Amino acid sequence: MADVVIYTKAYCPFCVRAIALLKSKQVSFQEIRIDVQPELRPQMIEKSGGRTTVPQIFINDHPIGGCDDLVALEAAGKLDPLLN
User: Fold this and answer.
1) How far apart are CA 12 and CA 35, in angstroms?
2) Gene3D superfamilies this protein is in (predicted)?
3) Per residue in 12-55, pLDDT tens?
């Protein structure tokens, strides 16, 4: 199974949707809350190539993007191969 990391904030509907999709696929993931650990926000921005919005999702250290990007991968049938 892939190593999945998702950077989130509380009260973020896009974060909730992305997490729900990952859970529906029974994917284990590490959630990093940048509102709880703001010192990790620069790390997220650097890893994502400058993106500052949440969620930021990484599969095997590869930046996927945000919720819309994750949903698009699922709709295109490209998410499962990345997760396996």
Assistant:
1) 11
2) Glutaredoxin
3) 999 999 999 999 999 999 999 999 999 999 999 999 999 999 99
